Amino acid sequence: MNTAIQSLPPRAVVLLSGGLDSTTVLADVIQCGYNVTALSFQYGQKHAHEVKQSQRIAKSMNVTDHCIVAIDLAEFGGSALTSDIPVPKNQHVDQIVADIPITYVPARNTIFLSYALGLAEVRSAHDIFIGVNALDYSGYPDCRPAYIEAFTELANLATRVGVEERKTTIHAPLINLTKSQIIKRGLELGVDYSLTTSCYDPTESHLSCGHCDACLLRLRGFEKNGLTDPIPYAERQ
User: Fold this and answer.
1) Per the domain annotation, does 94 fall within a domain?
2) HSE of 42, CA atoms in CB hemisphere, 13 A
């Protein structure tokens, strides 16, 4: 009996937004042989279309355990993604500043990881994966290596499994990669990026705007790989 249990693939919870980064992480985790539970959030974001894309992505990768949690961070506001604050637009990626942008959602990753931690404990998963990146979004305080390390410590203080059993690890495999490096890795894994969405302010027909920070960084990532982004845009830079 013990031998059979040990032969089962390890379980992991992967935060899946429907975007480029989290999809790359999902593909990587699957290739590593994990039994994956995907976790997505409908959190009052303007770009709620990403949740539908996350469902398509999970299905395309044969992930059958996909949890979608509804929480309403729009009740708090404080971000261009969850309130009437306009999403900043630029004509070129070089215009993006390093300060904390108004697209930062207060405590979002802490909230998301807390849900992931609870789900991981129920699913007997000791590994949680998140697609945060410290290079392209260095202004986000909850995308830094120090934050991931701190949350990992918290996770093992705050859960029964962390105290009584095996420790939980929060993995951020893309944290020190550029967008072009992330795309290159995803292409090596066979990721279909036409299923992903990154735009913070898409049109009513779900076309990416082409000028928010997320669009500009994504477009440059494909350009640096000598490729054209496969998703449709209302306007490209």
Assistant:
1) no
2) 10
